[in-house]
Amino acid sequence: MSDKQHTKESLSESLQQVISLLEKHKLVENLVHKQGVPSHDLAKQDLVELLVHRQNLSELQKKLDALHPADVAHILEALPLEDRLNLWELVKADRDGEILLEVADSVRQSLIADMDSQELLAAAEQLDADELADLAPDLPKDVLQDLMDSLDAHNRERLQSTLSYPEDAVGAHMDFDIVTIREDITLEVALRYLRRLGTLPELTDKLFVVDRNDILQGVLPLKRMVVSDLEANVVDVMAADSVKFHPQDIIDEAAQAFERYDLVTAPVVDANNKLVGRITVDAVMDFIRDESESDMLSMAGLRDEEDFFASVWKSVQNRWAWLAINLMTAILASRVIGLFEGSIEKIVALAALMPIVAGIGGNSGNQTTTMIVRGLALGQISAHNMQSLIKKEMGVALLNGLLWGSVLGLIAYALYSNYQLGLVMMSAMTLNLLLAAVMGVVIPLRMHKSGRDPAVGTSVLITAVTDSGGFFIFLGLATIFLI
Hints:
Elements: H1 3-34, H2 42-65, H3 69-77, H4 81-88, H5 96-102, H6 105-113, H7 117-124, H8 129-135, H9 141-150, H10 153-163, E1 180-181, H11 187-197, E2 206-210, E3 216-221, H12 222-227, H13 234-237, H14 251-261, E4 265-269, E5 275-280, H15 281-299, H16 312-338, H17 341-346, H18 349-377, H19 386-416, H20 419-449, H21 458-482
Parallel strand pairs: 1-2
Antiparallel strand pairs: 2-3, 4-5
Helix pairs in contact: 1-2, 3-5, 7-9, 8-10, 14-15, 16-21, 18-19, 18-20, 18-21, 19-20, 20-21
């Protein structure tokens, strides 16, 4: 069994154990309260209830203490609001900050709403400046101000710097926990320096080589350090041409570089090449995961990440916008059908066959759109290859249209013994797939060019076009050639 499978199973088992302990706790409490105990035994009942209560809480506490913060976060996300808040009270105060960073944004809001200002401030003070930047947007303004006041000047400057960058910039995700050395020392001196530090920052695979003004000179990979002659100077072993980023760089591009060059960490420098921080694969992976989830939600027309156990009203607010757009596109499609009511009355088979044309067109358009959105995200689509791309998608649509249109034409002929209906079916399928291909390319490209996320609602628009267009093409051809 792979480590990944084992981790998933262990996490699932932990969740079930926590749920079982919560249910047991509720059950025992209810039984104690429901028992008809005489008044002179009330003190004994209170003692029994207190003991049972403490025993269950103790088991839950031990279970939570043994779990990684990310696992506790997963469990909190999987619990209804009342159970979630009850469990949150059992989390040790010194772990609040770590767990708040791990939970989804929507769940974090429910946890923060249950904490008072002092608890929030205590949780935030446990975190580094780069971690505080992730939590800061969800903190109440008064707590954020108190937090700023509690930080020393150095960390306050770091936090303000991180918060000043947009969410999609490298600067918003950089880490300030770095180890620097000078280029004019030997590897032996550098090694003694590391030993004096005692511990290294997480994900440290290289040391950053700087001069006296913190200007980046290169990087010293640890794997080079341990296999090289300790008498050698850092300048002779370091890599001077390392991959580096600026705080204003787009994190998407940094993520692509991390994948391309198999990076674990990379330096972040300002316009003068002064080292200001680092970006780690951990931060990049978190961003990619968040972007993937956001794109998935956007393609379904959801505006925000939604807590599974959010209130009905909040869920309605999150979902109504694209449902309204869907309603308008459905009305448009129905009006297109209404234009051909007379044709449908004369040939009832049209009513049974037209959803097939529209449905296949929608699926084909969404396939094209997915490829285009992916290409845009990877930076593989630009003006120079646009014409080739459209030709290719049109060719795919034409071949698929002729192939599957012929299949459907034969099915229509077999069902209704009308070869003309079969030809109309094949022609309509081909034309609608060509329409879907054009729209599948044009819609996301136009959205991207206008500065909007091409993943947001594109599938809804494609479906609207292929539904209305498919109905119009099929019923129009049928009216011309069959009526």
